[in-house]
Amino acid sequence: MPARRPARTALAVTAVALLSATAAACGDTGALQGAGPTPTAVSPTRLWPDLRPASSPAYPYDPAKRETVKGVTVPGDDIRKVDPVEVVEAELRARPDDYGSKGAYHATADRMKRCRPGAYGGGCPLLKPYYRDLTGDGRADLTLGFRLYPGNQTAVRVYTVERHTLVQVLADNDALIGVELAGRALIERSPADISGYEYRTTWVWDPGQRAMVFSRDEYLHVGDGRHGKIPSPARSPSPSAAESPR
Fold it and tell me: Disordered: where is this region (predicted)?
């Protein structure tokens, strides 16, 4: 691993210096020994200081999205008691342009008819739900994913409870290799347009906007030049098997 070579070199130099000092100590009076010249620190160099600043962002990222989910109740303010199937069906009803007969994801609405509470798979586009505190309020939030047919994209959604109401605080659609929860961050992994790399996007909770917002994206080298396979909907016996907040 090239990134660790400087550290290993430094350790080797230190070891040689210690051995030399130990050998010298056998015949001297214990005086301090020089470790050699210290490299001169180099400050950052600012390039093109007269360059005119850009007046607009390079890439138009969507602003943070918050939306109250209509028609879905939260019994006892416990998000675990909310039926994920009902949550997705509420989105289908609210967006007929996307999920209607002429919408880009019309096949998703058709396949949602195969879903049953607590049992996913078997043609149901809804993936296993996960529960973790992503907003920092000490209560579990709900992370959902469902396939967007007839294409190969996956919808990623995060929900929280505010004032007895279910609120969507993240909505993103992408062609995904996988999704990860790391602490209070959600990371999406997608195929990159460079062989041997993948594209990762990180979303984190913003208390000011009260939503999950884009934090950073990066290309990461993943090895042999092959992209990972896009996952298919997984079967889950019940929401109780989903991840608990840590």
Answer: 29-49, 224-246
Q: How far apart are the first and last CA of the chain?
A: 32
Cα atoms in the 13 Å half-sphere on the side-chain side of 203:
27
Give dist(CA 232, CA 42) in Å, integer.
51
Cβ burial, residue 144 (10 Å; 0-12/13-18/19+): buried
What SS3 string covers the chain? CHHHHHHHHHHHHHHHHHHHHHHHHCCCCCCCCCCCCCCCCCCCCCCCCCCCCCCCCCCCCCCCCCEECCCCCCHHHCHHHCCHHHHHHHHHHHCHHHHCCCCCCHHHHHHHCCCECCECCCCCCECCCEEECCCCCCCCEEEEEEEECCCCEEEEEEEEEECCEEEEEEEEEECCCEEEEECCEEEEEEECCCCCEEEEEEEEEECCCCEEEEEEEEEEECCCCCCCCCCCCCCCCCHHHCCCCC
The amino acid present at 99, given as its one-letter code, is: Y
User: How buried is 99 (Cβ within 10 angstroms: 0-12 exposed, 13-18 middle, 19+ buried)?
Assistant: buried
45-83 b/e with 16+ CB inside 10 Å = b?
eeeeeeeeeeeeeeeeeeebebeebeebebeeeebbebb
Whole-model pTM? 0.71
Give percent above pLDDT 70 in the chain.
Answer: 75
- Closest-CA residue to 80 (of 137, 131, 143): 131
